[in-house]
């Protein structure tokens, strides 16, 4: 399979990843990126219920007025 990347900014990002990670090729960078994405997707699936519970709890707290007032957010 051949992949043509026409976007110069994307090409530059890939080059930076090659240099930053010490990768030897575009294929190696893509493999690392896919592995990272797959790991994140697995984590999200495995923790979906816990994350949703935390979100619900936060929304409930906001509904009860327990949130931080907007004018104080920057201080925190």
Describe this structure in words.
- With 76 residues, the protein is an all-alpha fold.
- It has one domain.
- Helices cover 72% and strands 0% of the residues.
- It has four helices and no strands.
- It is elongated, with a radius of gyration of 20 Å.
Structure class: mainly alpha
First-last Cα distance: 50 Å
Please indicate the count of domains: 1
What is the number of E strands? 0
Estimate percent helicity: over 70%
Characterize the main sheet. none
Percentage beta strand: under 5%
- DSSP helical segment count: 4
Evaluate the radius of gyration: 20 Å
pLDDT below 50 for ≥5 consecutive residues: which ranges? none
Could you state the order of secondary-structure elements as H and E? HHHH
Mean pLDDT: 94
Structure summary:
With 76 residues, the protein is mainly α.
Topology:
Blueprint: H1 8-21, H2 26-46, H3 48-63, H4 70-73
Question: What attributes characterize this protein structure?
Answer:
single chain, 76 residues, 4 helices, elongated
